[in-house]
Amino acid sequence: MNNRKRKAGGLSKYSQLLVPLIAILVLVIFNLIRDPGFFSVGLTTNNNGDPVLQGNLISILNGASELVILSMGMTLVTAACGGQDISVGALAAIAGSVFVKVLKSGGGSISPLLVLGGFLMCCAVAMVFGAFNGSLVAFFNIQPMIATLILFTCGRSIAYWINGGATPTVSSPIINAVGSFIPGIPIPTPILIVLLMGGLFALLFRFTTLGLYIQAVGINQSAARLNGINAVGIKLLSFVILGVCCAVAGMIGVSRLGLINHETLLINIEMDAILAVAIGGNNLGGGKFKMIGSVLGAYAIQALTITLYAMKVPSTDVKAYKAVVIVLLVVMGSPVVKEAADRFTKRIRAARRSDTGKEAA
Fold it and tell me: Where do the structural domains in the chain lie, given as residue ranges?
């Protein structure tokens, strides 16, 4: 009996990842049938003569970098506050504008120290705006989606004002390396940044109780407070961490393009980030979370996008096709479907036990 309970507990522990894993598996099988060489990876040289990896698989991993990073932060806000931040795209644009502003202050020469200073400055600004959103949620009990609607509405205008309405370009070997490849390393730099961010979160959850506290606050804020957990502080911290994620995503977006365009930088990415959290099996009402599920959900969304473009679907129709598939994925991961699947599984197990009992008799 105990072994059976432990086995069931182990299965339930990983069942949350079934939806994103099934989505990725279906996309992989579909693309392999359609084009057996779809996921092939090749080694070529770029304009600088450095070896780099290329292929649809690399495009998926590389193109999803900003979305994966934002999904990590969005997972924490969702788990702690039971709502979503819809201003992450606007905040990334603000952070990107600050990053460019600092780089342009160097008078044309961009040194590693200036890049580091620009990154730290855009992180600080994004953390301040994240704290603003978090304050509305934590102190005034405003729903996260309503609280972040303010920055969603005016954020890109703020990004526009930071650089005086201009779209300045930034060009240097360091910026090119951040947005594309580090010389001598064939893996795109954004993928390495994602691995670094994932490692930092893993260490944070491994050596601190932050993950436990976030889940406790999301499940029952009153009970968490009675157990000595500062629910207000945890909510505020989750938004601040999301602000750092926005800064990193904004820096990557600017480095890819070599300029800041406040109107188009990571436009509509907040919706994909929320969907990645949902597809990852996380409860959008808060509570328990599994960050790896959100990461897989982000890659599933990007894989779907690359698949549609490979099928020559017009860019104007991509969102419609994505919406249909995403609705199916979200429905698959809904509590109603999960409960129905659990009942069906229990019936099969009961029938098997009954048949076994009859054979024994």
Answer: 57-272+283-291
